[in-house]
Structures are given as structure tokens and as C-alpha cells.
């Protein structure tokens, strides 16, 4: 499974927006500059985020974007889903009776990858924007880590698993 730039950049932009919008609407140009993301790409993402009720726009001078809800109510999984990024680790279409093999059968490791996708979704559903902003992301041990020093740019690692 590979989480594409669409999902990663949407989350990065939303974290930036949540941090900056305490002072009012935030422009996409400012987010693009801070996060080193193409402005035209952000415009596409924010169109989907607005349609998915994750952000609201403010027109006119001093306009920009605001979160549609409190950061504590916004799940990371909802942000990723709003930009049409599936959270899955199989090659198959979720819920389809057909498998990913050429003959339509399920591969030998189908259940393994399907459960991995479920676990990723559960993990991302358990984390809010506020959790990320306030460094409350838990490690595998369930113990709160020291404040995260995650790069906020194109150097973020990509989640991958073999298919």
C-alpha cells in the first residue's frame, strides 16, 4: 500500500491550516509556501476538502480558508477520505466478490492485506487534527511519545507494504 501525495498533502495542509487559522482565514498561497506544496495542487485538494465539509472558504480581502469544525472533531481518516484517497492495502476493490488475481480469485495473502488496511483506517480514525498539532500521537506501545519532530514537507516517509 502506498499513501499518495494527495492524502499526505491534504493532511499536511489541514494541520497547517489548523495551526494558522486561530488568527483568521488562511490563504492557500501561505500554506503552499510554508509546506512547499504546489498552489495549483492545493487548490484541487481544497476543492475536495470543501465539498467534503472539512473546510469553509471566506471571500474578499483577508479571505482564505478556515476549518469547518473544531480541530478536535476532525479525524485524519476523514481528511484522507475527503480527497478521494482510499485507505486500503489490497489490489482488490473493497467489498467486491472478485479478488486481485488474474482469474478473479483472491490471492493467498488477501486477508492479511485487507486487515492491514483495516488497522490503518482504525489508527487514522483514532487521531484528530488537534492530536497532531498538540503532539499527542501515540506510538505502538500506547505511551505518549516525546513531542514529534516530523518533517512537514516533501521529505515525509511514505507508508508502503508489499502487495
Write the layout of secondary structure elements.
Layout: H1 5-20, H2 28-35, H3 39-51, E1 55-58, E2 64-67, H4 76-82, H5 110-125, H6 129-133
Provide an overview of this structure.
- With 163 residues, the chain is mainly alpha-helical.
- It has one domain (5-133): Arc Repressor Mutant, subunit A (Orthogonal Bundle), CATH 1.10.10.10.
- It has helices spanning 5-20, 28-35, 39-51, 76-82, 110-125, 129-133, and strands at 55-58, 64-67.
- The chain has a two-stranded antiparallel sheet.
- The radius of gyration is 17 Å and the shape is elongated.
Continuous helix count: 6
Would you tell me which CATH topology applies? Arc Repressor Mutant, subunit A
Coarse structural class = mainly alpha
Major beta sheet, specifics? 2 strands, antiparallel
Q: Which architecture per CATH?
A: Orthogonal Bundle
Average pLDDT, rounded to a whole number, is: 80
Write out the strand line-up for the largest beta sheet, numbering strands in chain order: 1-2
Helix and strand element order = HHHEEHHH
CATH superfamily: Winged helix-like DNA-binding domain superfamily/Winged helix DNA-binding domain
Distance between the termini: 7 Å
Instruction: Give the overall form.
Output: elongated
Total tally of structural domains: 1
The count of strands amounts to 2
Radius of gyration, CA atoms, in whole angstroms:
17 Å
